[in-house]
Amino acid sequence: MLELIINNKKYWPFIKYAMSTCNSFSVVFEKDYHDNSKYILQDFYSLINEFVINKKSIGQHPDTGTHFENCDLIKIQCCETTRRILMDATQIFEWNGNECPEELCFYRDDEKWFVSVSHERFLFIYNESKDDIDFLNKERIEYNFVI
To answer: Are the C-beta atoms of residues 21 and 131 closer than 8 Å to each other?
Structure first.
């Protein structure tokens, strides 16, 4: 497992790489306090709605361990349209529940590959490949091996 340190300039190359090597990603949407059938970031949800693979209510994120109340974990297909939506953000920590939904994670063959714990500002890659290491080195994205 790797712990990443991504500066703002490396966000877009990282997202392009993740979208090209993963088949899905997930984010957490907090439900609207006044209308439980909608999300606080409903406009954002409307952008990705047609690419949703599955949606489930969570109390604890299965990949990050973060506790949530009144939220849904939404798994989304990686494709050109969703890549463009992710590229609207300018840094990884915009995925914090304020500007964008929180806890951005990527999956390869339905196995977690990248996990962000947004409020604690932790970023991890699981089961890193040689291609992953080569990409990180090429882009000068700092990382530490974690046992």
So the answer is: yes
Classify residue 141 by burial, with Cβ atoms within 10 Å: 0-12, 13-18, 19+. buried
pLDDT, averaged across the chain: 96
DSSP state at residue 31: B
Q: What is the largest CA-CA distance in the chain?
A: 48
The structural domains of the chain, with segments of one domain joined by +, span 2-145
Q: What pTM was computed for the model?
A: 0.96
Predicted confidence (pLDDT) per residue in 17-42, tens digit: 999 999 999 999 999 999 999 999 99
The structure tokens listed for 77 are 């297909």
Query: b vs e for 72-102, b when ≥16 Cβ sit within 10 Å of the residue's Cβ?
Result: bbbbbebeeebeebbeebeebbbbbbeebbb
Q: Which residue has the tokens 């979208």?
A: 19
22-to-2, 42, 43, 76, 114 alpha-carbon distances in Å: 17, 25, 25, 11, 9
Neighbours of 16 (CB within 10 A): 15
